[in-house]
Structures are given as structure tokens and as C-alpha cells.
Design a protein that fits this description.
There is one protein chain. The protein is of the alpha/beta class. It has five domains: 49 residues, no CATH class; 211 residues, no CATH class; 104 residues, no CATH class; 143 residues, no CATH class; 62 residues. Helices cover 47% and strands 10% of the residues. The strands form two sheets. Strands 1, 2, 3, 4, 5, 6, 7 and 8 form an eight-stranded mixed β-sheet that branches. Strands 10-9-11 form a three-stranded antiparallel β-sheet, with no helix packed on it. Helix 5 crosses helix 9 and helix 10 packs antiparallel against helix 11. The radius of gyration is 29 Å and the shape is globular. The termini are far apart.
Length: 684
């Protein structure tokens, strides 16, 4: 039986002047629609539910404790609930949800957005995190977690160095989401329509500051971040102030839910209606996790659940974010299986600074750091564990070799991506880091990396080259295949490919042109491991790359190959010239040809840089126009029995093509912003 008081609410809120309402960046001061019902919201033309009475909130807190929730969890949930009476009823009959490794008890109800925070370790922002392995000054690294105690539990925990560290990371995540997943206008106009998934977690601090108990969105962080932006909420309000000052929290909610839009001027009415639409969200709250499979804890289960929503369609993260989420799951599985000790796990995860890695006897050179990840995780006897981690966060029953190597390669580049994130977008090092990703991921598909037991020894390039040359001679003289005669060459390749991919010495395979070389960079790398010149080129790439220079060509004897550029910009040999750079086209078509035709340059002689830029922009515009025409025509291709063919059959696996389009979109967009900065500003 429900107590009558639980259905009652605070009858009055403080009188709210227009200036007291929280402003947001969309308040333009223009006349708003005469009737606020012109904007659809979940509550239509009706009033918002009034602020619950404190007594009802307290009874809901007691009910939460009675069903086994920690007092802090019960308190946070009761204050976030729009209807505490409904919460009390739901707590007695939770829904059981089967997820990876266990069962979650959950309830579905409406919650106040100010009572929630986006989980500060949201995987959507992973590609922009700065890890300690990068060695970037002024960055404490990402927050640790989420983590959970083994067995049945109701709580996760996330840890930071101190309050300042937490605020820096939450603000970085907030800025990234607002810039890359802008939902503000939609939420302000219509509210949050689909439920967010909410967990209880403790925000812990290594400096001894008391932990902060919070309700966080494991899925739905973008929606809550955008909603709180509309409400004008920022950290520390949400993470530190409201959880400790419930009076201010209730005043904030009451100022919106109890205000009368018709009593305000147009600008204030517009602002209030946007906030009313945003104030409340449907939610599924995870109450308790019970494991049913060995090796699974609450954190791993939640990561798997969220990954199932975002790593595969329909609501995908970026490609880097998806691979990073899978990499995190792989590391969790390997640590759970006790394959990795804590120091190696943290090193692979990018959580050790260069100084800490050196103290543990682990490589600190960026190229060796990446290669160490490959050597540790590509091993054949780890394959099942790696697959299990990937399957945790995807809907796939099987994991192909390409997916597996892409995940490991993305993890190998974590430190490189981290340092690039801290640099100016125009910085050459950042541009190299961004461009190397595609060829590097393909290089890692070299099959021998996964079939031979090799490791990183941190030998000098000269020592590594000597060992590789001796190994090649022994292999050539051997009458049978011996995997042991590849360990030095693979170490050399794994370290060198970092620099060749960064400087364009190894590029991704050609697409579309039927005459061009279609081999992937891993196939070119395989060829380089089979002769003296290839090994010397790999060693030279390490030497030059570590010096911050474009890797240079060397002959079979190790001498520099010198030359000059012709009128088309191509290199021609000339003993009096300077050492020529290693280029992808040179390796493909001259050193290790496969019979494909070298694409000829189209640049006219004596063309100035500005003339060339104008010609290429016009050419790109024509290509894009043709793409649009072809897509329109494709959409109108009819089946024999009627209806669009593509609407029925779809377009299978266009991911690589879409990746090209997104990369071009990003680059052209950046150039557009550069042009805008240089445009003269109007004084009118």
C-alpha cells in the first residue's frame, strides 16, 4: 500500500524572477512562440511534476537501504527520482537483465538530469585522452576505472589524483562531446526521449579527499552532457556541489519545475521552456550485479553492455573510440586471466609515465613502446583471450584476424595519439601521428607477427641490423622453415614500421585505380624482410625517425642513395645530390615491384604551388559533384519487380570508403576554418 504522503509534492517553490533562471548560449532575446506548447516535449501541454516533498525522498532512501543498497546509493537515487513513491514500488520488483558474465537487477523510472553526471571515463572520448605514456608535461593522465570489487556488488569506482584532476578530465570530456556530438538543440526542443543507463559509482581521490558518491550514465553521456549544457550546469556543481548540498540542488530543480512560463517575457519564456524540456530524463538504473561466469566483475560487465550499444551499429562511436573500447576489454580479460602482472598491464594501457616505465625495465622509446604492445598481444597463444575481450563489447560471434590486429595496433598507438592531442593542429608531428594510423594498422597485419615468438630487446639499430642480417643468411642456408630465424627481423620491422608509416615510407594500398599496386603495406614490409637492402632500409628508418627526420634510402651495401628532384617533383639519382627519402611509391614500384603500373604525375612543368592548389581544389570539387550524381543515380536503381534495389540489398561493408570520406571531410573542414580566420572582418 502506498502512503498518501508519497504522492504529494512541495506545493510552493521560491518566487523566481526571470533573471534567476539559468541562462544558456541559445538565449537570443528574440520573440518566442506565443504558446510554449508549440515545442513538443514528453509532458506535452501539461505542467512538469512538482518537486517531491523531502519526507517522500527520505522514505525512498529508507526503502533503498532496506533492499540492500548502500546508504549513499539509496540517497542519491531518492533525490534524483522524479516520483519517490514509484521508486519505492520499483525497488521491490526489479527487472533482471542478462548481460555478459552475469545478471543485473534494474529499474526503469524518470530521473532529474541535475542528479546525474556523465560517467567521466566515457569511451566516446577515448581518442582524445592524454595517457601518462605520452610523457606530456601538465597532463595527469585519464582517470582510473571504472573498477569493481569481485562478486556480487552494487557499486563501481573511478579514481583520480585529486579534485583538480577530476575536474580537468571531466571538462575535457565535456568539451569533446559538445564539439563532436552536438545534441543541444534537439534536447532543448524535445527532451531526452530514449532512456539513459545509470550506475552508482564512487569518485575516489588519491590525495585523501573523501570519495564522492554519484549516479553516472554508463550509456547516455552525450545526452546528459548536452542536457546539462542547456540547463547551464557545469562541474563542480554536478560532481561536488549538488551531492553535498541538497538544498541548492532542490532549489535549482524547483526554480524550473515550479516556474510559470506565461509570467515571463518572451526571451525568459523561451529559456524556461528549453530547460523544462531538458530537466527530466527516462532512465534504466542498474541496482546490483551478480556474476554467473568466472572472470567477470561489474565493471567488465558494464563495459561489455555499453560496448554492445556503441561498438557496432546503430549508435556507433568513432572508429578509434570503438577500437580503444575493445582494447580496454582485451586488457581486462588478460589481467583477469593473470596473463599480465599489474606493471605490464599498466604499461600496455599507457598508464605508466616514461620514468615509471624505465624504472620497471620497460622500453621508453616511442617506437619500441608501440612494438612492445604488438609483441605482447599478437602472440598466438593469447588469441582466444584477445578474442574474448573483443566479443565482450561487440555483437560478433567470431573475431577475424583484421579486427584483432586493428585493436592491438590502436592500443600500440595510444601514447603517440596522446602526445598528438596536446599539439597544435598544424604541428607537423601531430599531422604525422594522424596520418600514420591507417598504414600502421595495416602493417600490423603482417602474419608473422602472430606466428613467431619475438620480443623487444632495446638493442641499438646497428646491433639489431647486424643480428637481422645474420639471421637472414642462416635462414637462406637452412633447408627447412624455422620460425626461430625470424625473431630479429620481426623486431627490426616492428620498430621501423612506426617511422615508415609516420613519414609516408609505407602507405595504405591504392583504391579504385585498377592499374595501381593493390598490395597492403604489410606485404611490402614482408618483402623488405627478405633481402639485405630491405633490412638496411628498416634500420635507417629507425635512426632517422628517432632523429626527427624523414627516413633516407640506402643501398644493399648501406650507402646513401643520392639524387635531385625533377620538374615534376620526382627524385632522380645523382651522385652529387642529397640522400633521397624513402617513399611508398619508390618501395612499391622500383625496389619491390609486383608488375603494377606506377601512376604518372599530372603536374604540368613550371606549375607554381598556388596554381597547383587551385587545380587540385577544382579537381576535388568535380569528383565530389560526380559522387553526388552517382549516389543519386544509385538510389534510383529499380529492382525488376519494382522498388529501389539498394533499399532492399543495402551496401555491404562500406566502412573503409566511409573512413576515406570522413578523413577528407575533416581535412577540408580544417582548411575552411583556416580561411575563415584570414577573412577580413566586417565592421558593420
Amino acid at each position: 500500500m502506498t502512503d498518501q504522503d508519497d504522492t504529494e509534492y512541495e506545493e510552493k517553490t521560491e518566487d523566481v524572477e526571470e533573471s534567476d533562471l539559468v541562462e544558456d548560449e541559445f538565449d537570443s532575446g528574440e520573440d518566442f512562440e506565443q504558446g510554449h506548447s508549440a515545442i513538443w516535449s514528453r509532458f506535452g501541454e501539461g505542467d512538469l511534476p512538482p518537486l517531491p516533498k523531502t519526507a517522500a525522498v527520505n522514505r525512498a532512501t529508507t526503502a533503498g537501504v532496506e533492499v540492500g543498497l548502500p546508504p549513499e546509493f539509496a540517497t542519491a537515487l531518492a533525490h534524483a527520482a522524479v516520483n519517490p513513491s514509484e521508486l519505492r514500488s520499483l525497488l521491490r520488483r526489479p527487472t533482471r537483465v542478462n548481460i555478459a558474465g552475469g545478471v543485473i537487477e534494474a529499474i526503469d523510472l524518470d530521473l532529474y538530469v541535475p542528479g546525474l553526471v556523465p560517467l567521466p571515463t566515457n569511451n566516446r572520448t577515448m581518442e582524445k585522452r592524454v595517457y601518462p605514456a605520452a610523457g606530456a608535461a601538465g597532463y595527469a593522465g585519464p582517470l582510473t576505472g571504472p573498477r569493481a570489487e569481485p562478486g556480487e556488488t552494487t557499486m563501481l569506482w573511478i579514481e583520480g589524483e585529486d579534485v583538480s584532476h577530476v575536474q580537468d578530465e571531466t571538462e575535457r570530456a565535456r568539451e569533446y562531446i559538445l564539439a563532436n556530438n552536438n545534441l543541444r538543440e534537439s534536447i532543448a526542443a524535445r527532451g531526452i526521449a530514449m532512456p539513459v543507463n545509470v550506475v552508482f559509482f564512487e569518485l575516489r581521490h588519491r590525495d585523501g579527499e573523501p570519495p564522492m558518491p554519484l549516479l553516472g550514465t554508463a550509456d547516455g553521456s552525450s545526452r546528459i552532457t548536452n542536457a546539462q549544457h542547456v540547463l547551464g550546469l557545469t562541474d563542480p556543481q554536478t560532481h561536488y556541489h549538488f551531492p553535498t548540498n541538497r538544498d541548492d540542488y532542490r532549489r535549482f530543480i524547483g526554480a524550473i519545475s515550479g516556474a510559470d512560463p506565461d509570467a515571463l517575457r518572451p526571451a525568459g519564456r523561451k529559456r524556461l521552456i528549453r530547460q523544462r524540456n531538458t530537466l527530466i530524463t527516462p532512465a534504466r538504473v542498474f541496482l546490483r550485479f551478480t556474476p554467473t561466469r568466472e572472470g567477470y566483475d561489474y565493471a567488465r560487465a558494464v563495459n561489455a553492455f555499453v560496448g554492445m550499444l556503441h561498438v557496432d551499429p546503430p549508435r556507433a562511436w568513432s572508429q578509434t573510440g570503438k577500437l580503444e573500447a575493445m582494447a580496454e576489454a582485451v586488457l581486462d580479460v588478460l589481467r583477469g586471466a593473470e596473463v599480465l602482472d599489474d606493471s605490464v598491464h599498466d604499461y600496455l594501457a599507457g598508464l605508466l609515465t616514461p620514468e615509471e616505465a624505465e624504472a620497471e625495465g620497460l622500453p621508453v622509446e616511442r617506437d619500441e613502446q608501440a612494438a612492445f604492445v604488438l609483441a605482447a598481444l599478437l602472440r598466438e597463444h593469447h588469441r582466444d583471450l584477445v578474442n574474448r575481450g573483443i566479443q565482450d563489447v561487440t555483437a560478433r560471434k567470431t573475431v577475424g584476424p583484421g579486427r584483432r590486429t586493428d585493436v592491438i595496433a590502436e592500443l600500440a598507438l595510444r601514447a603517440t595519439r596522446s602526445i598528438a592531442t596536446t599539439l597544435d593542429p598544424k604541428d607537423p608531428e601531430r599531422k604525422r601521428a594522424e596520418r600514420m594510423r591507417a598504414p600502421y594498422l595495416r602493417c600490423v597485419r603482417l602474419a608473422r607477427y602472430a606466428t613467431v615468438e619475438w620480443k623487444i630487446t632495446s638493442r641499438s639499430p646497428a646491433e639489431l641490423l647486424q643480428a637481422a642480417l645474420e639471421e637472414l643468411r642462416d635462414d637462406s642456408a637452412s633447408t627447412h622453415a624455422d620460425p626461430g630465424l625470424w625473431v630479429n627481423r620481426l623486431e627490426l620491422a616492428a620498430v621501423a614500421q612506426y617511422h615508415l608509416a609516420a613519414w609516408g615510407g609505407l602507405g595504405r594500398e591504392a583504391m579504385g585505380n585498377t592499374e595501381a599496386d593493390k598490395r597492403g603495406p604489410q606485404q611490402i614490409l614482408e618483402s623488405m624482410l627478405s633481402d639485405d637492402q630491405g633490412l638496411r632500409l628498416l634500420a635507417q628508418a629507425i635512426i632517422d625517425g628517432r632523429a626527427g627526420a624523414h627516413p633516407r634510402r640506402v643501398s644493399k651495401s648501406g650507402d646513401f642513395q643520392r639524387g635531385v628532384r625533377d620538374q615534376y617533383g620526382r627524385w632522380e639519382q645523382d651522385p652529387a645530390g642529397k640522400p633521397m627519402p624513402i617513399e611508398d611509391a619508390w618501395l612499391r614500384y622500383e625496389v619491390y615491384p609486383a608488375g603494377a603500373t606506377l601512376p604518372r604525375p599530372v603536374t604540368p612543368p613550371n606549375e607554381t604551388p598556388r596554381m597547383k592548389a587551385t587545380r587540385l581544389k577544382s579537381q576535388i570539387a568535380r569528383y565530389i559533384e560526380q559522387i553526388n550524381l552517382d549516389v543519386d543515380e544509385l538510389a534510383n536503381v529499380e529492382e525488376v519487380d519494382g522498388g529501389p534495389l539498394l533499399d532492399r540489398e543495402g551496401w555491404a561493408k562500406p566502412n573503409e570508403l566511409l573512413s576515406h570520406l570522413m578523413s577528407a571531410h575533416s581535412q577540408i573542414g580544417y582548411w575552411a576554418r583556416v580561411a575563415e580566420r584570414h577573412m577580413p572582418r566586417s565592421n558593420g
